[in-house]
Specification:
The complex is a heterodimer of chains A (370) and B (472). By secondary structure, chain A is α+β, with helices and mostly antiparallel strands. In chain A, 20% of the residues lie in helices and 26% in strands. Chain B folds into 4 domains: 85 residues, Uridine Diphospho-n-acetylenolpyruvylglucosamine Reductase, domain 2; 115 residues, Uridine Diphospho-n-acetylenolpyruvylglucosamine Reductase, domain 3, CATH 3.30.465; 112 residues, 2-Layer Sandwich (Alpha-Beta Plaits), CATH 3.30.70; 85 residues, Alpha-Beta Plaits. Helix content of chain B is 33%, strand content 20%. Chain B has 16 helices and 19 strands. Classes of the chains: A alpha+beta (370), B alpha+beta (472). At the A-B interface, α1, β9, α6, β11 and α7 of A face β9, α7, α8, α10 and α16 of B. Chain A: This is FAD-binding protein.
Chain lengths: 370, 472
């Protein structure tokens, strides 16, 4: 404990590194006010800060150009408000998605986000979103987010949105901060829309030759919650579709007929929602993509959002993809441009300048030094 | 050289309007009690023309306002008498439809319904369905983040737009997409009410039409009983496509206007629409009917055909206009409360009616707590308009008090900017202003909307030098 602030601070070590950059200190605030105090002090001292939660994706995106303070939010893990009748929950950003799921399950509810890493926090799930199978049905983190409390680089506490599912008052800062990788400020609290846990779930899995085979499912009216593909570097490609609801079994059987084969299971296949290994890249492509030799791809045929591993030369792969596809190196070593084209980068840079003119918040974690 | 000269160089004469009589056509949007005659109106046909106008505005320091079909209910498209009104009504091409990608790319002047009409025969549709969908433009929907009755299940415009081409307030043409790695600028732009630039190309998600759709009308003696049914439906884990409620006064108005034939003597009616795969819809319908009966519904009607479904919806969709039959004037309010507070807030609105002697008809998207109280008054009776205005404002206070919002779907616009400080702190508003300054440092894009007081952007602050504080 240092100073009158009572915020716990310790020296940083190799285990605290962000993409190989070791912070001088680690601060462990326990409240929104303490986050503000720490950031205010960092502003006074010109210190560079990177927020962290479950640390499951600190190796994603680029390492910070400099890092003095790792702001560890893991002590902020409270459910602040859960009104089951409203299907809304407000939490501190450091709560893990697994812990939140436990709490909500007691009321028969869930935050309908599939998070690939156990231990990931809500803050990290917003700041560094990862694709999940059921995004097709429920949307991504940004779609389920209703309100947010952020702390800016100068310690300012600001809120946007609210705790009702329908609200268009003011700019949606929550969405702006989604995907920000700690470069705009710190997400301290968040409010989400919840869904009732489905009465039943069934997975239909089938091996296939080409990616197009699953198209019939997407053209059907069976409303799968997710349609995922597992395309390993070697071996058979598998497609799996999830059906949710009281008639899940009937719909999975109907889907089997549409496809002319496959197996219906009560449990997800082992690869469901799990990222392939390093080096890891994010692929967004709305049509069946070309996949190079030695590359494995997993993700949603329904949304066109995938994770890929085994790719070494990003530029070479990019040149074989449609112009509107996006391939970004998330974690590991790559050759070629890590980011690829980002047409809105000049606007992102202007937003960064307004939120963090001193470039102290995770500087350089995103493209173009943002 | 003036801005007029520049505009006349950009456009042929028939697409620059300066005639005072014709200008008055554009003096208001759907919120008719705010009016201003624009200095000049232009009718661009391409993004390049929009960019050229915006650049001219930058050069001459003139503000601009974009307008689609002018159906907005918060004065978001209210012109500036010292500014250019950029009307997108000539940008109405559907540029592409790609069902393999389940996407359509359209220009901003295309109407909401035209997108669905273009793909309906193939079994697809565009989900957000504001009541004005026959005429409202998709560009306006993007600006306002429009909802509609079915957003309970399917979400709002922001959940269905995948990419935008925008003209920034500097006049640059930029693409922002959900696929861009980094900040969700798309999410920030949708719903920014024209203050961050003008969308000139919109990529929307198309959805497969549901296999089955069924609509139930349930009548209750009291609005409380109807509210209880809503809570029980949601509590049972059912997510209908829409749950709408109308109170006795709204029913009376709808009956007078369109003879919708809702059960007589109902204190409230619920419209519940379920859609999805047939087996799910059938089991959920049985469950919903059982819940309505258990909570005191005395009559339930299930639409047996598309015509019957349309008839049930007719009363609800005509409700706003219908109150014109029972009141000389009215204010359409748009507030949101947590669903569990509906009862308390309705009791509060009731108390306001008694206190001020002003009638309020209630129409609402009950499933998501979005109230549309229609505050009725006689504009010829001295003082009644003012009292109605007070009641309208007090309803918003009730919403805020219960943790809700001052607008669920109509937007802040010019109408509610003054209420923003009741919902947000100065720090909140200043932080939003940083976004505004990043996009529009000159404050030329739809100024005077959303935010209560104009704030200057100033220069980006310079790097501070100091010593570490006492924590470190």
């Amino acid at each position: 404990m240092l100073g009158h602030t009572r915020v716990t601070v310790r020296d940083g070590g190799p285990a605290d590194a962000v993409g190989g950059v070791v912070p001088r200190w680690v601060a462990l605030p326990e409240s929104l006010e303490e986050v503000s105090v720490v950031l205010g002090a960092c502003a006074d001292g010109g210190l560079a800060v990177t927020p962290a939660g479950g640390r499951t994706k600190l190796c994603w995106a680029a390492p910070p150009e400099r890092l003095d303070v790792l702001l560890d939010l893991s002590a902020m893990h409270e459910v602040l408000e859960h009104v089951a009748g409203d299907l809304v929950v407000r939490v501190q950003a450091g709560i893990t998605t697994a812990r939140l799921a436990e709490v909500l399950a007691k009321s028969g509810q869930e935050l309908a986000l599939d998070v690939p890493f156990p231990g990931a926090t809500i803050g990290g799930t917003l700041a560094a979103p990862s694709p999940g199978p059921r995004a097709y049905r429920y949307g991504n983190a940004r779609d389920l987010l209703l309100g947010v409390t952020v702390v800016l680089a100068d310690g300012t506490i600001a809120r946007a949105g609210g705790k009702v599912v329908k609200n268009v008052a003011g700019y949606d800062l929550g969405k702006l901060f989604t995907g920000s990788y700690g470069t705009l400020g710190v997400i301290a609290e968040a409010t989400f829309r919840l869904h009732p846990l489905p009465a039943d779930r069934r997975w239909l899995t089938f091996g296939c030759e080409g990616w197009e085979d699953a198209g019939a499912l997407l053209r059907s009216q069976l409303e799968p919650s997710a349609v995922e593909i597992d395309h390993p570097a070697e071996g058979l490609t598998t497609v799996a579709a999830l059906f949710e609801g009281s008639a899940a079994g009937d719909r999975a059987e109907a889907a089997r007929e549409v496809l002319g084969g496959g197996e219906v299971h009560a449990d997800a296949p082992s690869w469901w929602g799990r990222p392939p290994g390093l080096p890891l890249a994010s692929l967004r492509c709305r049509v069946a993509p070309h996949v190079p030799e030695g590359v494995s791809v997993r993700g949603s045929l329904a949304t066109g959002v995938y994770l890929a591993s085994g790719v070494t030369d990003l530029d070479a792969w990019r040149s074989r993809l449609p112009a509107d596809a996006r391939l970004v190196g998330l974690a590991g070593d790559f050759t070629g441009d890590r980011w690829g084209p980002i047409p809105s980068l000049p606007l992102m840079r202007r937003v960064k300048e307004r939120f963090d003119p001193e470039r102290r918040m995770s500087p350089g974690r995103l493209a173009g030094g943002v | 050289m003036t801005v007029f000269d520049r505009l006349e160089a950009i456009f042929p004469p028939d697409r620059v309007i300066t005639d005072p009589v014709r200008l008055r056509t554009y003096e208001c949007d759907g919120l008719t009690y705010h009016r201003a005659t624009p200095m000049v109106v232009v009718l661009p046909e391409t993004a390049a023309e929009v960019a050229a106008v915006v650049k001219a505005c930058a050069e001459f320091g003139v503000p601009f306002v974009a307008r689609g079909s002018g159906t907005g209910l918060s004065g978001g498209a209210l012109p500036r008498s010292d500014g250019v009104l950029i009307v997108t009504s000539r940008m109405r091409r559907i540029l592409s439809v790609d069902l393999d990608r389940r996407q359509a790319v359209v220009e901003p002047g295309v109407t909401n319904l035209a997108i669905t009409e273009a793909v309906r025969d193939q079994g697809y549709y565009y989900a957000p369905d504001p009541s004005s969908q026959q005429i409202c433009s998709i560009g306006g929907n993007v600006a306002e983040n429009s909802g509609g009755a079915h957003c309970l299940k399917y979400g709002f415009t922001v959940n269905h737009v995948q990419a935008l081409e925008i003209v920034t307030p500097d006049g640059e043409i930029v693409e922002i997409s959900e696929d861009d790695f980094g900040y969700d600028l798309l999410g920030a732009f949708v719903g920014s009410e024209g203050t961050l630039g003008i969308a000139t190309k919109i990529t929307v998600r198309l959805m497969r039409a549901p296999e089955a759709v069924t609509t139930l009308l349930a009548a209750f003696e009291t609005i409380e009983a109807g509210g209880q049914a809503v809570s029980s439906i949601v509590g049972a884990g059912i997510l209908p496509a829409a749950i709408e409620m109308m109170d006795a006064l709204a029913i009376e108005a709808a009956e007078a206007a369109v003879s919708c034939g809702y059960p007589a003597d109902a204190g409230a009616v619920l419209i519940v629409e379920l859609d999805g795969p047939t087996p799910d819809v059938e089991s959920q319908l049985a469950e919903v009917i059982a819940i309505c009966v258990a909570t005191g519904s005395f009559e339930q009607r299930v639409a047996a055909s598309a015509e019957e479904r349309a008839k049930i919806w007719k009363g609800r969709k005509s409700a706003f206009a219908a109150v014109g039959r029972i009141s000389p004037a009215y204010i359409v309010q748009d507030g949101v409360v947590p669903r569990t507070c509906l009862g308390e807030v309705l009791a509060g609105i009731d108390a306001l009616q008694t206190e001020f002697g002003i009638r309020v008809a209630n129409v609402f998207h009950a499933g998501d707590g979005n109230l549309h109280p229609l505050v009725l008054f006689d504009d010829t009776a001295p003082g009644e308009g003012e009292r109605a205005e007070v009641v309208s404002g007090r309803i918003l206070d009730l919403c805020i008090l219960h943790g809700g919002s001052i607008t669920g779907e109509h937007g802040v616009g010019v109408d509610k900017a003054r209420y923003m400080p009741r919902m947000f702190t100065d720090a909140d508003l200043d932080t939003m202003q940083r976004v505004r300054c990043a996009f529009d440092p000159g404050g030329r894009s739809n100024p005077g909307k959303v935010f209560p007081t104009p704030r200057l952007c100033g220069e980006v602050p310079r790097v501070r030098k100091g010593s570490p504080g006492e924590i470190f």
